[in-house]
Write a structure and sequence with these properties.
By secondary structure, the protein is α+β, with helices and mostly antiparallel strands. The protein has one domain: Yope Regulator, Chain: A (2-Layer Sandwich). Helix content is about 35%, strand content about 30%. Strands 1-2-3-4-6-5 form a 6-stranded antiparallel sheet. The longest helix is centred in the C-terminal third of the chain and has 23 residues. It starts with 9 loop residues before the first helix and ends with a helix. About 25% of the residues are buried.
Length: about 140
C-alpha cells in the first residue's frame, strides 16, 4: 500500500534531510537550507498555501554586470539542454551577479516522504552540477 499523502511542511523537509543525515539549518526567516560542496541550497515552500516545493541553488561565484550577456547565453544553453535546474541570472542590490538554479514541484494534494526525497535529491544533485559549470566560467 502506498504511503499516505501529507501536507508539505518544513517539518517534513527537515525529516527528509535528517533521513539522509544531511546537515542543514533553519535561518532567521524560518527557511530551511544547507551547503553541499560549496553550493548554498534552500528548500522553500511557495504558493498561496505553501504547497509548491522549490529547491533553490545559489551558486557562489560572483560576477559583475559586465558578465551578464555571457551569463544569459550560458543560462539559455543550460535550460535548452537540461531539464533541471532551471537556471537564471540574478543581480543583487549590491550589484553582484550570480547564477541561480531552481527545481520545483507542486504538492497541492500532498506528498509522500519518498516523493519529497526524490525532488530534494534532484534539486541538490543538479544544483551542484550547475554550480560546478558556473565555476568553470570564471
Amino acid at each position: 500500500m502506498p504511503a499516505p499523502l501529507q501536507p508539505l511542511s518544513n517539518e517534513l523537509i527537515i525529516s527528509a534531510l535528517n533521513a539522509r543525515e544531511f546537515a542543514h539549518f533553519v535561518d532567521e526567516d524560518g527557511d530551511v537550507g544547507g551547503n553541499w560542496q560549496g553550493c548554498l541550497i534552500y528548500f522553500f515552500r511557495l504558493g498561496k498555501n505553501h504547497e509548491i516545493f522549490q529547491v533553490r541553488s545559489m551558486t557562489q561565484v560572483a560576477f559583475s554586470t559586465d558578465d551578464v550577456p555571457q551569463l544569459y547565453a550560458f543560462c539559455n544553453a543550460w535550460n535548452h539542454d537540461r531539464l533541471w535546474p532551471k537556471a537564471y541570472v540574478h543581480t543583487g542590490d549590491d550589484g553582484v551577479v550570480r547564477v541561480v538554479g531552481e527545481v520545483g514541484a507542486d504538492f497541492e494534494h500532498g506528498v509522500t516522504p519518498a516523493q519529497l526525497d526524490q525532488v530534494m535529491i534532484c534539486g541538490i544533485a543538479t544544483g551542484i552540477e550547475l554550480a560546478e559549470a558556473v565555476a568553470a566560467l570564471k
